[in-house]
Design goal:
With about 450 residues, the chain is an alpha+beta fold. The protein is about 55% helix and about 10% strand. It is built from 15 helices and 9 strands. The strands form 2 sheets. The protein has a 5-stranded antiparallel β-sheet, with no helix packed on it. Strands 1-2-7-6 form a 4-stranded mixed β-sheet. Strand 3 and strand 4 form a beta hairpin. It is globular and about 55 Å long. The N terminus is likely disordered.
């Protein structure tokens, strides 16, 4: 297929890159080479004279559309954001063509006389999702722009859906230790902060370490992550996870809460074993071991350790596993297994290439998808039965109606999801995390 889609920057626009930012003389052109067009399965269309546009997601692109697919196609000039002052860096491969897919390919960039050629750069986008863009004027090269770009990359590096899950989970479980209104005191607030800050640092360590060891896999499965896209160097990634681990464990020791320190230590050990490429480790290669790590942390450590931190360390009471705590632990066993299984459904291609034997690779995406849906529906059914046994009428009403609504929403969403679209499956996975958050809003109401 002979094809070259190109755009030339006008004199009022220039490439805005990561720090350090080179000054590029105009005009400069960016084009997709015929090989890249073939790899991306693009139609023979041409782009008009368009400025480079910036997405809120933090990357730069020229927008095109493939008419024979429902999904919009973003021809992402991903590397534009990380052009260095030295042209030698431009030859870095972000994803080789052999490991790409028709749905998602990254970049293999070279330069000759100021002409930047993208060999393959296509990414599908949810057709129902608004995609706001803004042109970038020539005076946008500011310290604020650099800081904003770094913070955006750090946000993606920290995997915000897991951060929110950790925050919501710890707050919800901490509320289970409340026995009267007088417990809402400064001691409770301090104890909650003492739990949240080191837990968030440990969360960043775990997800960051996984990205360090998964750079090649993420170039296929999650090319928007900072290490995979080249926005962060490997050194930067290692520095962030090291500092996060030291801060987390250091605060756990200084605070002096035994349950909190146990929670952080167990999370550190399991997170390291899950990702690290060392003998007898890299447990994510095994579907059972990977699910076990997530189950242990999300179901047992969060519920039991952080509850005991509030119960014993903050309030000075004897350890007692109440009915709501046991319910939360049991329910989150179901949810943790679902998250452990579902997270690999959109990532089958990269996992197959690099020998990650997830359940989706072993038994198939379709089977794992519906297994996850059925597990959650069973969990919601059990939760409604438990809710009926509550002695307080308003608690009974909220637990039954709340879980019934979540079960219906889950089922309707599962039936509507396009299983063949990776973008749709990723979106539904994020929806499962929203159900995870919603459950933590209901748990403190359990009586």
């Amino acid at each position: 297929m002979a094809f070259c889609a190109s755009t030339r920057l006008s004199s009022s626009h220039r490439l805005i890159c990561g720090s350090p930012r080179p000054t590029l003389s105009t005009p400069r052109s960016i084009s997709m080479d015929p090989i890249g067009a073939t790899l991306c399965n693009l139609p023979s269309v041409s782009f008009p004279n368009l400025p480079i546009v910036r997405h809120k997601q933090g990357y730069w692109s020229v927008i095109g559309k493939r008419d024979h697919l429902q999904d919009k196609l973003i021809c992402s000039l991903f590397v534009v954001r990380r052009i260095r002052a030295h042209y030698g860096d431009l030859k870095k491969k972000h994803l080789t063509s052999e490991k790409g897919t028709q749905e998602q390919r990254m970049v293999n960039l070279s330069t000759r006389s100021g002409h930047f050629t993208v060999l393959a750069a296509a990414r599908p986008v949810n057709n129902e999702q608004a995609f706001p863009v803004e042109s970038v004027p020539a005076d946008a090269d500011t310290v604020l722009e650099t800081l904003t770009g770094w913070l955006d990359a750090f946000c993606r590096f920290s995997r915000p859906h897991t951060i929110i899950g950790t925050v919501v989970g710890i707050i919800s479980v901490s509320l289970l230790a409340i026995q009267s209104l007088s417990d809402f005191s400064s001691a409770f607030s301090v104890g909650l902060i003492q739990a949240l800050i080191p837990a968030l640092c440990m969360n960043i360590y775990i997800v960051g370490l996984n990205q360090i060891y998964d750079i090649d896999i993420d170039k296929v499965n999650k090319p928007y992550l900072p290490l995979a896209s080249g926005e962060y160097s490997l050194t930067t990634g290692i520095a962030i996870v090291t500092i996060s681990a030291v801060l987390s464990l250091g605060m756990g020791i200084l605070i002096g809460s035994r349950p909190l320190l146990w929670a952080l230590s167990i999370s550190f050990v399991l997170g390291t074993a899950y990702s690290t490429e060392l003998p007898f480790l890299r447990w994510k290669r095994s579907a059972v071991a990977a699910a076990g790590c997530i189950l242990c942390v999300r179901a047992f450590v969060v519920q039991l350790a952080f509850y005991l931190h509030m119960q014993e360390f903050v309030f000075g009471r004897a350890a007692a596993l109440t009915r709501p705590v046991l319910f939360a632990t049991t329910f989150m066993c179901f949810f943790s297994v679902v998250i452990a299984l579902f997270k690999d459904i959109p990532d089958v291609e990269g996992d197959q290439l690099y020998g990650i034997q997830s359940f989706s690779v072993a038994i198939g995406q379709y089977q794992v998808y519906w297994l996850c849906i059925y597990l959650l529906e069973v969990a919601y059914g059990v939760a409604m039965v438990v809710g009926i046994t509550s002695q307080v009428p308003w608690r009974r009403f909220i637990m039954v109606i709340g879980h019934a609504v979540l079960a219906i929403v889950l089922w309707l969403g599962a039936r509507r999801t396009d299983f063949k679209s990776k973008a749709a499956m990723t979106s539904f996975y994020m929806f499962v995390w929203k159900l995870f958050y919603a459950e933590y809003l209901l748990i403190p109401l359990m009586g």
